[in-house]
Amino acid sequence: MTVSFTHLVNKVKTAILVSFALVLLSGCGDQREQVYLNGPTMGTSYNIKFIDQEGLPTVEAIQTEVDKKLELVNDQMSTYRKDSELSRFNQSTASTPFTVSKDTATVIKEAMRLNQLTMGALDVTVGPLVNLWGFGPEARPEVVPTDEELSARRAIVGIQHLNVTETTVTKDIPELYVDLSTIAKGWGVDVVANYLEELGITNYMVEVGGEMRVKGNNKENVAWRIAIEKPSVDERAIQEIIEPGHHAVATSGDYRIYFEKEGVRYSHIINPITGKPIANKVVSVTVLDKSSMTADGLATGLMVLGEEKGMEVAKQHNIPVFMIVKTQDGFKEIASEAFKPFLK
Predict the structure, then answer these.
(1) Is CATH 1.10.3980.10 the classification given to domain 83-171?
(2) Which H or E element spans position 239?
(3) Which of 23, 233, 275, 324 sits at 20 to 30 Å (Cα–Cα) from 12?
């Protein structure tokens, strides 16, 4: 049985991107035979749809290989498996290089690149702060930490204390703790999607815990369409419909996981720079990219940055980004120029 990566920054993307299994939006077209696979992984589930074609292995063989590949990701990057590569690195207090797989090194490298791109807003070492605020595996009571507690945790957080090569990871403070939950589910999607492409499959949709990547057309032979959910805890309704083409889609939202204390709402998404929950008005960020791993990390990083800085980064790097922002009258939508062609 697979084990959850973490409660850290649980972005409830299965709910936010509502179209995968529940609302497939399509038009009329020619019906084709569609294969559907699903199963447990990473404390959540995977769902795969692809159009059958000649020359493929049996459906059972494909699912066996998918399960094997996702199990490997767990063995490499889970923080709940005490013997995973990442857990063993976190348990180590040595400042010498720690040998890891090429896959783990690749994901950590991308996390470090996105940290720079988001001006420090995405930080995979922020776990101790998330735990302090009661949203991590420590399962602390929902209390506001003291300044002294915050200062102590901030002292052991910071991606600048991490170094990675093709085969090793090194920390320069013994307490450094790396959690890849903001990016590793996306990596799992990419691993499965790349496997389908190796088989020659050109029409597919892959989803793991709400992270998605699509290519080609659905069973009606029209492009896959994805519905972005309205940011409401009381209903499940569609905010917008997008047609992502050959892209991954990731959405980060903070409107379902939080706690309130003395009239103040504390989000589960922590700003690594302040050490505190984000306090901006952005409630949902959707990002498109060729890589699900990259879209996954960017959605969280841009959420932390907020409306102005986040959209500034999107413009500077030509990133397709869609934000839903809370206003006095309800919500407003903001789409980067790169995102607008995907709106339907």
Answers:
(1) yes
(2) strand 238-242
(3) 275
Cβ–Cβ under 8 Å, residues 182 and 9:
yes
Please compute the mean of the pLDDT values over residues 230-235 and round it to a whole number: 66
- The DSSP-derived string for 245-306 is SS-EEEEEE-SSSEEEETTEEEES-EETTTTEE--SSEEEEEEEES-HHHHHHHHHHHHHH-
Contact 44, 14 (CB under 8 A): yes
Cβ pair 177, 131 in contact under 8 A: no
Query: Which among 293, 103, 283 is positioned nearest to 212, based on CA atoms?
Result: 293
Residues of the binding site: 182, 296, 300
Contacts of 51 (CB under 8 A, 6+ apart): 32, 33, 34, 35, 201, 202, 203, 204, 216, 217, 218, 219
Q: List the chain domain ranges.
A: 83-171
Tokens of 245: 């083409």
Annotated binding-site ranges for Mg(2+): 182, 296, 300
Q: Tell the residue number behind the tokens 């013994």, with chain if given.
A: 174
pLDDT digits (tens, 9 = 90+) for 71-99: 999 999 998 899 999 999 999 999 999 99
Residues 162 and 176: beta-carbon distance below 8 Å: yes
Strand partners, 50: 35, 204
